[in-house]
Design brief:
five-stranded mixed beta sheet, alpha+beta, single chain, about 350 residues
Length: about 350
Amino acid sequence: MIFYKTLNNWYSNNKRELPWRQTTNPYYIWLSEIILQQTQVKQGLPYYSAFVAEFPSVFDLANADESQVLKLWQGLGYYSRARNLHASAKYVANELKGEFPDTYKDLLKLKGVGDYTASAIASICFNEVAAVVDGNVYRVLSRYFGIDTPINTTTGNNEFKALAQELIDKKDPATFNQAIMEFGATHCKPKNPKCDTCPFKNSCLAYNKGDVENLPVKLKKTKVKTKYFNFLVILSNNNQTILEQRQGKGIWQNLYQFPLIETKNEVAFEEFKSLVKEHSILKDKTFELSLYNKEAIVHKLSHQHLHTKFWIVKLDAPLNNGVALETVSDYAVPILIGNFIEAFNF
């Protein structure tokens, strides 16, 4: 049987019922695809529902404040996705009068939309024969065809894209794309794939060579950096604290955080207290310092691990330009700080 026929037959019997599969509206498909970048369905689903409820149209999303978008995104990580989402919504609403581009080529012009997302939207919404290639597709194709070309190389990207384009059902590209992604996500999984009940078992090269666990091949990542973050949670005698908005193009751009002192390694209490005394906000002020978490919280990002401590600074003076403690949870913050705010119970 032709590859796509076997795949589509599996999909018709095993697909999950997901809200974005009930529509071909490009706004909802685009929204779901951006949320699901770097995110599993079970984690992304409540965010999708929240965004649809808060912003039922691209115009609603375009008219929102960035801080509102970032707050709703909080916990998903990779916040550049949220900023790109907002920027593209403004472009579609204001420049294209709410009409999404209807071809793969034009979809690529949207900020934050790459080959995979453009292919998904073009095929699902406009029936364009554009094959998707994501982590799930790499895994299915590399195992079935026994391909050991590294997937995180230009050669690998081109090879798997060409193969997917060759295999796609030309009459129904939308079903093929959704089927192969679903098959990779729920059946041909990274670990413990369901090989015993796989419809491709007899013809899968990796399975028949005992090579399933070794595919796909991925070159080692860039070395992960270790950083030491110390957040100053200042509590003034007029029930205010300080939140600062991160600037620049680094992590957590435009999100809020408590004042940060970054050190080269973990520092002892007295040594850190000396650093706090020199901080511009606290210089020449009387305060009481205590450590909230004795063991550092290790927050793992793709290229860096943040060893984080929260220091409570009780200030014997008022803050003139602070943030009222009862409003702290209203700000868009990284999930690391959001978890602290929830646990500290301002």
